[in-house]
Design brief:
The longest helix is centred in the C-terminal third of the chain and has 18 residues. The protein is elongated. It has eleven helices and 15 strands. Helix 4 packs across helix 7. Helix content is 30%, strand content 15%. Helix 10 links the parallel strand 12 and strand 13. By secondary structure, it is α/β, with parallel strands linked by helices. The structure holds NADP nicotinamide-adenine-dinucleotide phosphate.
């Protein structure tokens, strides 16, 4: 078994739960109970792997295997490039359980004869918190105040008023001057109303925002608009949050026409996938000063050094980190463990994104 170390005071409850399960159920089991070989990214600490069902043999899969590895189930590395490097060495995989929500690279790698599940639900809290933090950071001008802090020049704070009027077109003189904005009362458009979209809404409710929602299909209670209505909703939004999967239909969903429909000063937040927004159109909209944006995801990733987005004004960039809290891995492994339990019990799987043909 890889990894060492016990649990510590202050560790999240779910980690402690795994630790206590480990004490009674060692990760490696005797040969008489070995039934299913499950490959996992070798970098995950063994102490996080204690929640898997009886009858599972956990096989660490290195980023660069040196020989073939026989598996029944594969939990791929979080980083597609690492996982794709390992795949040619894997034999016998019938089920892939991703620890991520976005699985767009997996079907093309493993082909149609393998069932693919994602870790739906495991990202809800961390990605929703990132989204709320990104919205508040930009409305409270935190990136600007960070600049001032680095320079140590207090009086630069008055530039905030100019930023406000340049961004929103509101040229009235306020006294005291405007130094930041409010989220309360704004209209937030969620593009994607699945697991994470609903969690973002739950976290935004205390700010008394008006919510608009778009998904593939329309429904009521709460009202969700169909994807075809997106363009009619964009002009109403102060904040647009993209939280939908990367698919052929969502590729380039936000281009120059959609950006032009946004209000002066609107905030675009992309917590989903880079392919959903057209880079050139976004760069142009940001440089014109019409909108602001917060992006966690890019196309391509990593965002190359010198890419025009790095130097755009009114843009907050985080390098695809939104889900990656210490609580995330145990939560995702718990989703994977439940899927494995169902697989072994012959029960329907919960999070199938591709059924094997
Ligand atoms: N930044 C990060 O670190 C991070 C972390 C986790 C997830 N993500 C991204 O977030 C995405 C959403 O995750 P989730 O767990 O919320 O997924 P989910 O539960 O499957 O929900 C997806 C939502 O998107 C909607 N949708 C799909 N295609 C659409 C389209 N073309 N136009 C409008 N709406 C569309 C779906 O509509 P219906 O409800 O009608 O089906 C659904 O409401 C993931 O696929 C992943 O790419 C990013």
């Amino acid at each position: 078994m890889r990894g060492t170390g016990g649990t510590h005071a202050g560790e999240p409850a779910e980690m402690l739960l795994f630790a206590s399960m480990r004490a009674e159920e060692p990760v490696q089991r005797g040969p008489e109970t070995l039934m299913l070989r499950v490959g996992y990214p070798h970098v995950i600490s063994a102490e996080l792997l204690g929640g898997f069902p009886e009858g599972v043999e956990l096989v660490p899969v290195p980023a660069k295997p040196e020989s073939e590895i026989e598996l029944d189930v594969w939990i791929p590395d979080f980083y597609p490039t690492h996982a794709q490097r390992a795949w040619p060495y894997l034999r016998g995989v019938k089920l892939v359980i991703s620890l991520l929500a976005g699985t767009e690279w997996i079907p093309g790698t493993v082909g149609p004869h393998v069932t693919i599940c994602n870790a739906r639900g495991a990202h809800n809290v961390s990605t929703a918190e990132w989204t709320v933090a990104a919205i508040l950071s930009l409305l409270k001008y935190f990136p600007f105040y960070m600049e001032i802090q680095r320079e140590g020049v207090w009086k630069r704070r008055f530039e905030a008023s100019q930023r406000y009027s340049d961004m929103t077109g509101d040229t009235r003189t306020f006294h005291p001057p405007v130094m930041l904005e409010e989220l309360t009362g704004k209209t937030v458009l969620l593009v994607g109303y699945g697991e994470i979209g609903k969690e973002i809404e739950r976290m935004l409710v205390p700010f008394s925002v008006e919510m608009l929602r778009v998904a593939r299909t329309a429904r009521s209670q709460p009202e969700v608009h169909a994807a075809g209505e997106l363009e009619s909703l964009l002009p109403r939004a102060d904040v647009v949050v993209l939280i939908l999967p990367s698919t052929p239909e969502s590729k380039g969903l936000i281009g120059s026409r959609q950006l032009a429909l946004l209000k002066q000063g609107a905030l675009l937040v992309n917590a989903a996938r880079g392919t959903i927004v057209e880079n050139d159109a976004l760069v142009e909209a940001l440089k014109s000063g019409r909108i602001r944006a917060a992006l966690d995801v890019f196309d391509p990733e990593p965002l190359p050094t010198g890419h025009p987005l790095w130097s755009c004004p009114n843009l907050l960039i985080t390098p695809h980190v939104a889900a990656s809290t210490p609580q995330f891995t145990p939560r995702a492994l718990r989703v994977a463990a439940e899927e494995l339990r169902r697989y072994m019990a012959g029960e329907p799987l919960r999070n199938v994104v591709q059924a094997a043909v």
